[in-house]
Specification:
Elements lengths: L8 H4 L2 H4 L3 H13 L5 E2 L2 H7 L4 H9 L3 E3 L5 E3 L2 H4 L13 H5 L1 E3 L5 E3 L7 H7 L30 H7 L3 H17 L13 H14 L9 H6 L1 H12 L3 H19 L11 H5 L31 H10 L1
Antiparallel strand pairs: 1-3, 2-3, 4-5
Helix pairs in contact: 3-5, 11-14
């Protein structure tokens, strides 16, 4: 994989970009650094947590179309080909060729999904600008990471380049271990290894949540599958739960929520899907059929929320 990544000013200086939160902007840069040579990112949630960004920051990048969700659950950086133009002899082909084949390219190289019929205001603002790839290299002027060829004009003094340039052997020596570390990383979770059709799976979960008036991204399925469902799949994968088990657990959870809304349960929270499935508590496990008993969630007379009779009488006597 190429070591260098670049960013086009037409993208990162646009109003659509600079009006995002600083942490969302930081997350965008980190995702670009971690993407493969075609702009695909298969572990954005891990990167989000590593850099201290929030789910809101991630959602902002998706809503503004700086990130596009592909059918298999991986993401691609929409303006990757505007930011970067990697020489063929350095480019490592993406393992997500099928997903990339489903994308279209606009005239300036920006990715767009096949079912996108029109651009958002933010996309038009960026894509209508004149985009110049400052890092574009032609075959007649190939550049090396550590030196320029005689075929290419120098933009600064030759003596300055020679003086400030790192020794070529030093560059190679330091870059090799870095590449080895990248290759030795454990393979990130890919959703299609868990479910053959992520969209159908997500739709079923979404329908259960929405029909029971539970948090589901304000009824927006696109946002739900791009954020809540994608994050939750990581937890579900760790727990090795089948879709049928998840559906059954959700149905049991909804029964508890119904009791809660009637004031008959000690249970207090109405969790999002990813909070139910992720995190240290792995709350979804308690709602699996083999672990679940609805009576365990009924509020007893002396449970928190209902004071004992003697306490009530004592308060009256003291008053």
């Amino acid at each position: 994989m190429a070591e260098k990544r670049m960013f086009a000013r037409s993208i990162v200086s646009s109003d659509a970009f600079i009006t995002m939160s600083p942490t969302a902007q930081c997350l965008y840069f980190q995702l670009n650094l971690s993407a493969d040579d075609d702009g695909v990112v298969n572990n954005p949630i891990s990167i989000m947590r590593t850099v201290g960004a929030t789910e809101k920051d991630f959602e902002e990048l998706v809503e503004r179309k700086f990130l596009l969700l592909l059918e298999s659950g991986v993401y691609v950086i929409k303006h990757w080909n505007i930011n970067n133009n990697i020489r063929a002899d350095r480019k490592r082909e993406s393992t997500y060729k099928k997903e990339l084949s489903e994308l279209k390219k606009q005239e300036n190289g920006a990715y767009t999904t096949a079912n996108d019929s029109q651009m958002t205001d933010n996309e038009e603002e960026i894509d209508e600008e004149t985009v110049v790839n400052d890092n574009e290299l032609t075959d007649s002027c190939p550049a090396n990471d550590s030196q320029m060829t005689d075929k290419c004009p120098r933009s600064i003094g030759e003596d300055s380049i020679v003086k400030d340039r790192l020794d070529k052997d030093s560059v190679v020596e330091h870059s090799k271990p870095r590449a080895q570390n990248l290759d030795s990383d454990s393979k990130p979770f890919v959703p299609e290894t868990l479910v053959p059709n992520a969209t159908t799976y997500a739709q079923k979960v979404f329908d259960i949540l929405k029909s029971n008036d539970l948090p589901c991204c304000r009824g927006n399925f696109i946002t739900f599958i791009q954020r809540d469902f994608k994050i939750a799949l990581e937890g579900i994968h760790e727990l090795k739960l089948k879709p049928e088990e998840v559906f059954a657990a959700l149905e049991n959870y909804c029964k508890v929520i119904e009791l809660k809304r009637q004031g008959l349960s000690w249970w207090e929270s109405e969790l999002t899907f990813f909070n139910l499935c992720s995190g240290r508590s792995k709350t979804i496990l308690r709602f699996l059929p083999e672990n679940f008993n609805l009576d365990d969630y009924r509020k007893s007379r002396n449970e928190p929320g209902s004071l004992p009779d003697d306490r009530i009488r004592l308060d009256v006597e003291e008053g």
